[in-house]
Amino acid sequence: MNILCTALYEKQLKVILEEYIKENYEATKKFKLYLDTILINLPTKVNKYKKAQLFDNEDIKEIPHEDFNILFFIDKISENYLILAILPKD
Known about the structure:
By secondary structure, the chain is an alpha+beta fold. The chain has helices spanning about 5-25, 25-40, 40-45; strands spanning about 1-5, 50, 60-65, 70-75, 80-90. Strands 1-5-4-3-2 form a five-stranded mixed sheet. Strand 2 and strand 3 (about 60-65) form a beta hairpin. The termini are far apart.
């Protein structure tokens, strides 16, 4: 399975990183590196994550990361993981 990102996710992540980098470059680097590690390991850890609260669909799950939830969709037809969005936790 491939891991693909939506334009929305990439836009949201860019905004988050631009804000973080103003405060602390090293913390921003660590945040992004850990996030990349989570996403790279997604295929082996997919069952670890719970169904997203915002959707009534077992194929849409969320990954908690610091103050955010990363939403992803398991597309069983095309055999891809689609990273949908990164949202602040409530």
